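Database export, one record per block. Field names are fixed; values are copied verbatim from the stored entry.
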Amino acid sequence: MTALTFGSPGRWLTGLALALATTLCAGCVEPNTTVHVTVSGDVQGIAQLRIKLDAGGLSTMTFLPNMPDVVSLPTDFNIELDRSRNGELVITVDAFPSDAHVAEPPTSLGTGSADVPALTVGKTNEVAIELTPTPPDNTGTGTDDGGTTDDGGAPGAGADAGDNTGV
């Protein structure tokens, strides 16, 4: 009968076999999908990006950075998706200023999106998004002319269109 003692070749081989099995088992876990997003554009004053992902029948929304801070373009980030999220991926990015929480709904400085027709599951997918500045909302910012604008009384035109009496 042979007894294994500390330092004996039998114990060393057992340890090696255990370490090898652990390493091989760790390799059995398949990696998640990574999406590397590069955002560029001519948008200034960004404090936070809202990223919306639609893939595999699920929608996810996140904010980068978590707390508003200065975001300069171009910038990039990685998003990790579970392997179950496959098929088409649509990413929408909205840029917000630091005071965006004041307005309801928040005013976006710019927006952009990208479509990946088929995710490469378990790999890194490269996506580039160009932010387009959002035009300012001029609703209600005009000056009141007191009704002096006249279209000559033509029905359905101008500010005084309802007054067709000619008086």
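Remark 1: The two ends are 124 Å apart (CA to CA).
Remark 2: The longest strand covers residues 124-133.
End of record.
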